[in-house]
Each structure stands twice: as structure tokens, then as C-alpha cells.
Amino acid sequence: MVRSTSSLHYHHHSLLSNHNTAIALHLSPSDLSSNVSTPDSSASQDVSSLLNYTDDGQIAPQQINGHRLEHQHQQEQDHIMESSRQAQEDEDQDSERRALALELGQGQEDVIMTEEERRDQLEKERKATVISNLAEQRKMIGSPNGHLLEGDLSLDARLDAIIATEQEGAPFPVYGLDEQIANNMIENCIGTLGMPMGLAFNFTINGSPLVIPMAIEEPSVIAAVSSAAKTISSFQGFQATAPERNMIVAQVQLLDIKDADMDRVMARMQEQEKAIQEEANEYCTNMVMRGGGVQRVSFHRVRRHVSRESFKGQDLLVKHGVISPQIVPSRSQSGSSSQGRCSEWLVVHLHVDVGDAMGANCANTVAEGIAPFLAKMSGGRIGVRILSNLNVDRIAKSTFRLPFSHMGYKSLPGKDVAVRLLEAYEWADLDPYRAATHNKGIMNGIDAVALATGQDWRAIEAGAHAWASGAGTYSDRSSEHSSLNAQESDQRESGKQNGSKRKFRQDTSEGCEARISRGDAYKPLTRYWIEEDEERLAQGFKGQDALMFCGELEMPIMVGTKGGVLSTNPVHAFTLGVMRYPDSKQLAMAMVTVGLAQNFAALRALVTEGIQRGHMALHARNIAISAGTPPASVDEVTAHMIDTGRIRLGAARSYIEKRGLGLYSAGMSANSSNVSIMSSSVHLNNNNNNNGGPGRL
């Protein structure tokens, strides 16, 4: 029989409270026990031991006589009182832990249920939750189509399909990658790895509601981001922007250009920019036909290392005749250069409009194709030809504004939450140790959307952290420096900020930075501030009521909605359909918005209730699953470990054995024949092996 955790907690607390009352009123233990109903003897025995009851039922070493206590045992009584106080202190310290256990234990009734019945009940609850959330989202979008037409790309039809699938009893509406396709996608394939995929609700971006799929194994991320989106969408929602053109940068490195020739070579290539552009477009004719292709060309001088200590080894190559001394900078022990030989490289950037593709293959093709033409024009030697994952031509931005009246959270008033959020942001801005974790939370949201929609999350991560490090600025060694300096001058004169925290650094006579530089410090990707709202002032709001809490996330995001692996995995077709089949610009805006919402949710939790309470439950839940707990009993085992304070694998397995639940493995699933996004399948990469379908681990 399953004992209600809430009943056990109430019984324990009642005994402690009544015991303290008994001491004050000089009642006997028998009088005390007569007023308490115990669910079972074991619980009563545990509490009795805590209260120092003797075998004859008396509170040792007190002797009751006519409701008067003897004073000759004052020392023992003091000891009992101290024990009681200590027990109460322990109870107070465990109150949060027990409250959490009670939450997890809700719904566990004192009835005998088979594992199959519990599994059915859990599935019904899950379906009810999913359908309820989807139905609420449907209200935001409009009336349903009534049926799903083949090829219908509308979001309401997609949601209708999910709801219908849930109601018809299928475990999940999304299935994973076929093993045979996976076997042909990569080398040495042994299977596919499944991840949980869910939907983030409550987003309103540029006035339009949006459901966003997220694939992530970390609990609470989807719930947190949906909660933050609900708060922000309750006012004005998110405003997002992205460049009109979906650009990517192809880089070509040109080496062995002598210092004396560099100015002349760079000037000549700038004059021939149109010819370079036309030649480069010969290697992306399909993009040109779609209105894209190479749109412009820029040139960047990258200064090489000038000290022996900063780049070891080249002197040895010169000494032993591996390379010519004419192709390395002249170096002194102090690190100064005498402007000899080849102190710089010339790097050509080809800015390619790749339409709605991510564009990596196109950029690499253009870079490799145009390289001989550039080498002949410059007289240099061809070096590396590759795309760049730091793409400042593809900056997406999302912002929100909230009055203090919408900022209240967990019993804290909005003004207090706003102040604490600003303090947390300031810490991240000053401390790179904190900034790293701050930005990791942002990428929790962005990477989850990238995984669900088939994007190269590794490229997005690389660009994000380079941007956070201050990279993406220009110097006077870049052909784009003069135009950017003019823009910066105009901004200073107008006194207006463009909303970006990016500042273009001034180079010194001691050395000029290349465009792609390391930056001064690692910074948070988001930005928060307080401003006074003119509209609210005009409406009669005064003081704090006129203040707005503002948030912003601006970063490079390279995504595509056509080409690549999107056509090979059916999951991506489904998830992009849920998002109304966005173009690359819309997908970038959705991803940067999720990153901002996730960061806002994380900071809000950190500055109010903290994260340990939630992490305690998540850790216990993972331990319960690792111990082999049947899915329908995970809540019960989790609640037991939290209630006892023993969150360990051994404790979970001991409870499973005691309850007779039996160990669970993925192979026990009733739908093991399906390749689901929620499962893992293993298949050896042997083209001659045709024995059966996917196995469940």
C-alpha cells in the first residue's frame, strides 16, 4: 500500500508539536498518544525514538505525579528540552525539503494500483496537459481549419494534427531519423540518439503568436522559457529584427606579400572589387539566379606575431631551411618589428547572400574557386579558404519592455525584482567567470531550438562566444574601417545609441588590430536597463509607475531553412511546420527571442527563490530514473528520497525493491517497434546485416 507523503509529514509534525505542548502542560505520554492517530507502527516508532520514549511509554526520565514534575531530575529535563529544541530546529531546516516532497507526492492515494494502471494514469495526465496547452495556444492563433489538408503549412493545422494524434492514443506525434538514412549520413554509424522534444508556448514576436519546438535533455528549460514568455507577452511581447539579406562570409588567406608591397596590392584589389565579385559569382550561379550571390568584397590586413615568445617554432624552421626567412616577419628579442619581409597577411572577405540556406557549402565553394584569381591579382600565395562562423552581417536582435507592475514574482514586488535583475546583470558584465554561466543559460534556449529545427548549433555557439569576447570590430587595417568610423561619428553627434553594446576600438601607434580580434573581455550577450517611458508619462503615470524594465539580446545567428540535412530528417520538416515554415530571417528572430526569454527566466529565478530547490527535485528525479524506476512511479520514488533526505542510487533501488515495483528499461515500452524521437536505436554499420529493425536500449 502506498502511504500518502502528505499524511506522513502531517503526522510527524503533529507529534512534534503535541510533544512540546505536553511538556508545557505536564501531560503524560499516554495522554499524548491518545490524541494522535498513527498511519502505521513503524512511523510511530521512528518518532517515538526521536522523542526519547522509554520502553514503558514514559518520557525518560520524568515521573508524572498528579500532573506535577519532580525537580530532582532538573538536569535530565534540561537535556530533554534541549533534544526537543534540536528536533524542532531540524524540522525547521527540513521544511523546504519536505514541502517539495509533498508537492511531488500529491496525487499518490492510499490505494493499490498495478504498474500498468499507474502507467495508464500517467499517460492520461500527460496527454491532458499537452492537449490543454495546445488548445490554449490555438485560441491565440485563430479558428481551426477543421481538417488537415495534405501540404497545408499553417500552424493551426499543425496543432490540430498534434491534438488529433494525442487523442487517438499514439505515444508521440514525431518520429526520429530512419536508421538506414542515418547509416548513409555519417561514417561508422552504429545508431541514432534520441532526445526529448517539447514545445515552448506563450511567445508573441512582432505581434504574432508563435509555438517554438525545443529539443533538450535538461529539465525545466522549456517550462522556464514558456513562463518568461507569458510574462513578457502579457504586456507588449517581443520585438525582433534580422537583416534583410541572409549573408555568409567566405575567407581567403593570401600569404607572402612583402611589407613594401602591401599598400599597393590592397589598393589595387579594392579598385578591382567589381571584377572579383563577378568572378566569385561564377562559383555560386544558383544563388545568383535566386537573387543572391556575392554582394560585396572587403579586405583585411592581419598582423603576424612579432616576438619569438608569442609564436615559437618559426625561427627553427628558418634555421633548418624548412622555410625561407623572407616569408616571416623580422623579429627582435623585445618583440618590435623592423618592417621587414612579410609582417602581415591579406585576408579577403566575400560576403555572399545565400537566401534561406545556412550557406556553409556555398561559402566554401566560392572561397576555393576564387582563390587562384585572387592569388594572381595580388602576387601572394594561397593559404586557407573557408567560411567564417563569426558573421557580423547576420546579427539578429530581440528586445522587450515591461513596466514594474508586470515584474512581480514569487511574492516580490516588481520594483525589487527589477533592481535585483540589474544587479545580477552588472555582475556578469564585470566578471567573466559569471558571464560564462550567464551566456550558457542563453545558449540553453538557442541550442534547443537549433537542435529541433536541424541547425548547426556548433556554428551558432562559436559565433556567439566570439561575439561575447568582443570580436567583430573593425580597425584602420580594414577596408571597412572608414565607413564604420563615419557611422560612429554620426551616432556621437546625434547622441543616440543604436541599441548595440558593440564599441569600435581606437588603434594605437604601437599596433593596429585586425577586424577579427580577441577583444578586451568576455561579456554577457544580453543587456538590461531601466528607462522612463514617455507614453506612460503622457498617460498620467508618475514616479516608479512610469519606469520600464528593458531587455535585449543581439548576436550573430547563422541558420537556414532550406538545404542541408533538413530534407533527410522528417522531424525537421515537422518542427519547421509547427513554426509556420519560417524563412531564415524569421527563424533567427525566434531563436534570439528564446535566448532572451531563457536568460530573463534564469536571472529572475536566481534573484528570487534561487535554483537549488528546483535542482534538488531534478537531481532526485534523475537518480530515480537511473535506478530503473518504472515511469509511472518516478514521482513516488523521487518524493521518498527527498522526504528521507537520501538522494542516492542505493536509496532509490531499496525503495523500488521494498515496494515491489520492478526495474524498468526502455525495451519494456509497448511501442518498441517505433523509431521515436524519445528513444535510442542501435544498428551496426554493416551493409550486409539485414536482421531486423531498431533495437531499444
Automatic annotation (TrEMBL):
Keyword Oxidoreductase on entry: yes
Highest taxon listed in the record's lineage: Eukaryota
A biological process term (GO) from this entry: coenzyme A metabolic process
Region (Disordered): 69-97, 471-516
Top EC group: oxidoreductase
Protein family (similarity comment): Belongs to the HMG-CoA reductase family.
Protein name listed in UniProt: hydroxymethylglutaryl-CoA reductase (NADPH)
Protein species of origin: Linnemannia schmuckeri
Source lineage: Eukaryota, Fungi, Fungi incertae sedis, Mucoromycota, Mortierellomycotina
